[in-house]
């Protein structure tokens, strides 16, 4: 799915995934801007019913959203119940409060999850799987603290890379 938007207001999209599409990775829906600030809200037919699009003013009408300034991405986990149904339709709303030019894309992704500075995040990772995260350091010279805490039964390992050509560090790359 790829569309170009020049909009102030609301645009609606839908993405249907059938049982034969065999997507075994997370689903990433991204909005990349040329200018302006598009925000993205996503739900699916199992959560809200067929043909019902998210209402950004009603938190219970969408399951995923991204309202960061600039680029926005939602990652829908591969273990989402809709992904295991015979047919799943995602309903996507892009909202722009000023004139905005953007491109929207959706597809299977192993893209890293973007972290927000000073905001904790919870992630569940199954044994033998790897989850990748990224963040931007906006000003050089500041200390950065990165930590992982086991909140259940598990043994998480944390690998960090500052090299642009090594975006997915692992135990053999250290």
Structural class: mainly beta
What is the helix fraction of residues, given as a range? under 10%
- Termini separation comes to 37 Å
Separate helix tally: 1
Mind telling me the CATH class of the largest domain?
Mainly Beta
Task: Supply the CATH architecture of the largest domain.
Answer: Sandwich
Uncertain segments? 1-6
Give the overall silhouette: globular
SSE pattern: EEEHEEEEE
Strand content: 35-45%
Overall mean confidence score, pLDDT:
77
> What is the number of strand segments?
8
Radius of gyration: 18 Å
Number of domains: 2
The major beta sheet can be summarized as: 6 strands, antiparallel
- The CATH topology assignment of the largest domain is Jelly Rolls
Characterize the structure shown:
It is built from 1 helix and 8 strands. With 174 residues, it is mainly beta. It folds into 2 domains: 108 residues, Sandwich (Jelly Rolls), CATH 2.60.120; 63 residues, no CATH class. The strands form 2 sheets. Strands 1, 2, 3, 4, 5 and 6 form a 6-stranded antiparallel sheet that branches. Strands 7-8 form a two-stranded parallel ribbon. The longest helix has 4 residues.
